[in-house]
Amino acid sequence: MSYTIVEKFLGDLKEEFGERDDETQKMAELKKIEQGGKMMEEFIQKFRRAARVSGYEERPLIEELK
């Protein structure tokens, strides 16, 4: 199949492989968050923002925080 319109190609690509939903992106973000040079309060706020839509609850969320 050849494409002459980029939008058609991108539409077919999204249809075939889908897009990462917000929950999946936040789960990935939770795994990457590190305190580094941030103050603990700043780190916790960033973690909480990502956790809200991550789909994680209780024990798995605590494990990610550790």
How would you characterize the overall build of this protein?
The chain has 66 residues and is an all-alpha fold. The chain starts with 5 loop residues before the first helix and ends with a helix. The chain has a domain at 21-65. The longest helix has 13 residues, at 40-52. 67% of the residues lie in helices and 0% in strands. It contains 4 helices and no strands.
Shape label: elongated
How much strand? under 5%
Helical proportion, percent range: 55-70%
Which residue ranges are poorly predicted, with pLDDT under 50 across at least 5 consecutive positions?
none
Secondary-structure topology with pairs:
Layout: H1 6-17, H2 22-32, H3 40-52, H4 58-65
Question: TL;DR?
Answer:
The chain has about 70 residues and is mostly helical. Helices cover about 65% and strands about 0% of the residues.
What keywords describe this structure?
elongated, single chain, mainly alpha
